[in-house]
């Protein structure tokens, strides 16, 4: 292990980001009162101003190199395509048709379980938990109004299913970030991650069945158009077949446009407008990703990453301890950023260093990053997921926490996987 202790002051930009973002949320009671880009920009300025021994132009150039790193740019392109696909598919009624198709065939006493499963399927297909919650939360509220189940339980089921897909989807930004930072294959990470969290999904379904057994409902879903379900099925099949993520998303966009034209009066003008609005909806995440890339590059150059690596690993005595440190690092970072993708991007290289040092399989390190970031993201009341669900349900995000079974259980599954050394790989990933 490198004995260089690094420079703790290099982490000042991250501290400033945390204080401004979290502090303003606590003071105002709204963690999205100011754009997350504001504390990010202030942190970026501080990062550039540090290390006075170097000329400013050189530091700005280093920041730009970090912001424009190939991994960052690839993720930006994927975010653009994911936003476009989500917008076009939603505009042609693909989400409504997919949801109503499932609701039509669900037994009444399994309606909440069905909501969890549907949310998982849609999130797995779309690769976005927030998009899934935005689409399903109104339906979940409607279900609670027509049953004896609380809106908090119904919405928490949506959030849980959405986090299931976010954690596993091959086109999810968190999965992409985890795979790219750990230098592993998408399909290999999916298999490893899936078997770790499978018990959590099963236990969540059991808990929901127990809580809702004997319930009655009068849900009467709207009619669905089977043709409009095809875009999601196509994207899911293409992704699972191992096709390039960008190709899958482009195909999904074109397929949605064609089906929209066949099944209704969806025009080329509407198609282009939806693509534009979808891209715009991802703008904050895109800008934040670029800025964070620059900040992390400066922190690394000034010795901050080395300080974290030294602090994180100095007490490690085993491979299990190293895996636990990866989980703790990404979880702590996610608490600060309230964004699981950014948390993975920020800690990914450090996690890779730890994984290499302690011979942790890259499939396992990628899975740990994704699992523990999604755990925190699904539980923090100032995260986009709970805020979105709570706003639609006119509840406080805190009210959803007692029913947030899946995010809690995937943390338990991840901890168990660390303690028992699961899965056991026959051969380390190349």
TrEMBL record:
Q: Which domain of life is it from?
A: Bacteria
According to its record, how does it sit in the membrane? Multi-pass membrane protein
Domain Na+/H+ antiporter NhaC-like C-terminal: from-to ranges = 35-211, 238-422
- Main localisation: membrane
Sorted keywords for this record are: Antiport, Cell membrane, Membrane, Transmembrane, Transmembrane helix, Transport
What are the TM regions of this chain, as residue ranges? 9-27, 33-51, 72-90, 110-137, 149-172, 192-211, 232-259, 279-299, 404-422
Compartment(s) of residence: Cell membrane
Could you confirm whether the keyword Cell membrane appears in this record? yes
InterPro entries recorded: Na/H_Antiport_NhaC-like_C (IPR018461), NhaC_Na-H+_Antiporter (IPR052180)
Q: Which family does it belong to?
A: Belongs to the NhaC Na(+)/H(+) (TC 2.A.35) antiporter family.
Name this polypeptide is given: Na+/H+ antiporter NhaC family protein
């Amino acid at each position: 292990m490198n004995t260089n202790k690094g420079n703790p002051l290099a982490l000042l930009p991250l501290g400033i980001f945390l204080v401004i973002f979290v502090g303003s949320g606590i003071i105002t009671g709204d963690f999205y009162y100011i754009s997350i880009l504001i504390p990010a920009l202030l942190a970026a300025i501080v990062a550039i101003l540090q290390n006075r021994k170097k000329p400013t132009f050189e530091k700005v150039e280093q920041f730009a190199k970090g912001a424009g790193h190939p991994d960052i740019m690839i993720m930006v392109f994927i975010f653009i395509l994911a936003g476009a696909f989500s917008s076009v598919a939603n505009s042609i009624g693909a989400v409504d048709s997919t949801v109503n198709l499932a609701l039509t065939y669900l037994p009444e006493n399994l309606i909440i379980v069905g909501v969890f499963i549907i949310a998982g399927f849609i999130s797995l297909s779309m690769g976005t938990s927030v998009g899934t919650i935005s689409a399903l939360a109104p339906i979940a509220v409607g279900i609670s109004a027509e049953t004896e189940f609380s809106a908090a339980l119904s919405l928490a089921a949506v959030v849980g299913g959405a986090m299931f897909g976010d954690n596993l989807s091959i086109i999810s930004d968190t999965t992409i970030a985890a795979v790219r930072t750990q230098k592993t294959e998408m399909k290999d990470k999916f298999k490893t991650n899936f078997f770790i969290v499978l018990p959590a999904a099963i236990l969540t379904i059991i808990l929901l069945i127990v809580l809702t057994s004997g319930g009655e409902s009068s849900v009467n879903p709207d009619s669905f158009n089977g043709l409009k379900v095809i875009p999601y099925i196509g994207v899911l099949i293409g992704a699972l077949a191992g096709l390039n993520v960008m190709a899958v998303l482009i195909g999904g966009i074109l397929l949605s446009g064609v089906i929209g034209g066949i099944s209704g009066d969806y025009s080329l003008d509407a198609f282009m407008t939806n693509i534009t609005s979808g891209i715009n909806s991802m703008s904050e995440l895109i800008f934040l990703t670029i800025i964070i890339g620059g900040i992390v590059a400066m922190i690394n150059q000034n010795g901050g990453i080395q300080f974290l690596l030294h602090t994180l690993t100095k007490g490690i005595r085993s491979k299990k301890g190293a895996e636990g440190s990866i989980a703790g690092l990404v979880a702590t970072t996610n608490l600060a950023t309230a964004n699981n993708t950014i948390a993975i991007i920020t800690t990914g290289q450090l996690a890779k260093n730890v994984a290499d040092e302690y011979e942790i399989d890259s499939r396992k390190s990628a899975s740990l990053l994704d699992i523990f970031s999604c755990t925190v993201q699904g539980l923090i009341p100032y995260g986009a997921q709970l805020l979105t669900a709570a706003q639609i349900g006119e509840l406080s995000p805190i009210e959803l926490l007692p029913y947030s079974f899946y995010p809690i259980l995937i943390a338990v599954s991840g901890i168990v996987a660390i303690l028992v050394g699961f899965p056991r790989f026959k051969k380390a990933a190349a």
